[in-house]
Specification:
- This is ModE family transcriptional regulator.
- There is one protein chain.
- The protein is mostly helical and 112 residues long.
- It has a single domain, classed as Winged helix-like DNA-binding domain superfamily/Winged helix DNA-binding domain (Arc Repressor Mutant, subunit A).
- It has helices spanning 23-35, 38-45, 49-63, 84-111; strands spanning 68-72, 78-82.
- A two-stranded antiparallel sheet has the order 1-2.
- The relative contact order is 0.16.
Length: 112
């Protein structure tokens, strides 16, 4: 039996009580950094505003701090940015994931 075409996928979430901060929240946050608009992040991801807001709110409630601050209105319809805590946890999560992927790649190659 040949395992040469096999791949793997990791989906890691961090949380206090409810698995809430993971790839979806990270993608929203990265897009907010890129575009400066929460609504644009939702649009790019194909999420409704209510669905996207629920994803962020669930993570913020579990973590105990805000991830994104939005300013309503103004020129261009308002803006959004990551909070200081949001930037910190995003950077830590990305570093953690990068390390885990290195170790996971080694283990995958060893067994498959």
């Amino acid at each position: 039996m040949s395992y040469t075409n096999l791949k793997y996928q990791l989906k890691i979430k961090i949380y206090k009580d409810t698995p809430s901060f993971g790839p979806g929240v990270v993608e929203i946050m990265e897009l907010v950094e890129e575009t400066g608009k929460l609504s644009e992040a939702y649009r790019i991801m194909g999420l409704s505003s209510s669905k996207g807001w629920k994803i962020i709110k669930r993570a913020e409630d579990d973590l105990g701090f805000p991830l994104i601050i939005s300013v309503v209105g103004g020129n261009g319809g308002g803006s959004s940015e990551l909070t200081k805590e949001g930037i910190d946890i995003l950077n830590r999560y990305q570093s953690f994931i990068n390390e885990v992927k290195i170790d996971a790649d080694k283990a995958f190659k060893k067994y498959f």
